[in-house]
Amino acid sequence: DVSFVDFNNNINSVLPRFSRPANHSRIFYGVMFDAGSTGTRIHVYTFIQSNSELPVLDNEIFQSLKPGLSAYADSPKMATDGIRKLLKVAKKSVPRLEWKKTPVVLRATAGLRMLSAEKAQALLDQVQHVFDESPFLVPDNSVTIMNGTNEGILAWISVNFLTGHLSAAQNKKTVGILDLGGGSTQITFLPKLKKTIESVPVTDYIARFDIFNSTFELYTYSYLGNGLMAARLATLGALGAEGLEDRVFKSSCLPKKFMEDWSFGGLTYHLSGDPGSDTGFKPCYQEVLKVVKGVIHQPYELQDSNLFYAFSYYFDRAVDAGLIDGVQGGMLEVRDFKKKAKEVCSTMTKNPSVSPFLCMDMTYISCLLKDGFGFKESTVLQLTKTVNNVEASWTLGAVLDHFHSLKIH
Ligand SMILES: Nc1ccn([C@@H]2O[C@H](COP(=O)(O)OP(=O)(O)O)[C@@H](O)[C@H]2O)c(=O)n1
């Protein structure tokens, strides 16, 4: 990675300050691709270098496309079109003179983690090739799969940076994050009690990073297979199943008459409702519970220690269910998800909602929060898509890490 110091030297040597207005030479750009399981996105960040340790974020340009890279697992060359399209956004957003010193980086998350190493590498190689041909700065290791710990920590850094909690790092008042992707889900927060750190099942649940000459010690974990799309498959008993052509996967979480082909991660599944069994919240909860029970660790402290920001599918489904406004977001109690899940599930056959999966998704989210992480019914979550027009995503933290080398360990 280009360290903070190298990057500044780079600016000074390529861009002599005397030839430009002083404030102009203090602007720099970072391009981060998020290769998620359900889509690929580009974030173009404009920063103003301030005199304090962290720069000021001036602006973000964001674009996304579907499906994710893993949909091209068996035809990796087809993945390049989308990457090229998104790179055009970077060319439009970054002034031509800055291209050569603007880093482009892609980090893949759960979609590629769930593929075989060979298939994932073939996709990364294709992206690397497109990057190498681009006019941007392509640092070492610019196209890789990111591990789940970094995904959680970087999202925590993003949200706390955007909400202003990192600049006041001394008093360590921060917010926790809940990220529900398609393939994996992350929980990250700053524990107040030693017991929380001491009582983790394995040391992987604790990670540290340095900023402002202090070390943050976070509780963080990424559960692969517990993202919303992977959880659908696990609920249906279809995750990792063979002979997909000849099988139909049924669930009490789907409308009785539902019958459809559904694709995720480059595979297609025949799905249907279960006319021969009870449907609705209760039987559905028992089904989704199997995906959560014995899998998700309950932190020693949770409810009283932090306000949690919940985004990605937590936000999207809360919007779909009519619980929050799609632009403003809002505060919800954990019990609101359960109440709404019951409502959606009881009416799904007579009164189909936006998606036939809404009962399953809302029930899974209720179960994950309560029987998974162990939140109380009354815990308030801040449902968020953007903070000051910037996407709540690990990508911002990843760019800050790139420029500042936050030494995550
Ligand atoms: N910038 C972004 C990126 C993803 N998302 C949401 O994240 C969810 C999917 O996450 P993902 O495809 O990255 O899945 P993972 O690979 O993280 O498991 C969807 O709800 C997207 O709408 C978002 O809201 N904003």
UniProtKB/TrEMBL annotation:
Subcellular location: Endoplasmic reticulum; Secreted
A GO cellular-component term linked to this record: extracellular region
Keyword Transferase: no
Location, primary (coarse class): endoplasmic reticulum
Pathway: Protein modification; protein glycosylation
GO terms, molecular function: ATP binding; nucleoside diphosphate phosphatase activity
Listed EC numbers: 3.6.1.6
Protein name in the entry: nucleoside diphosphate phosphatase
Organism: Cynoglossus semilaevis
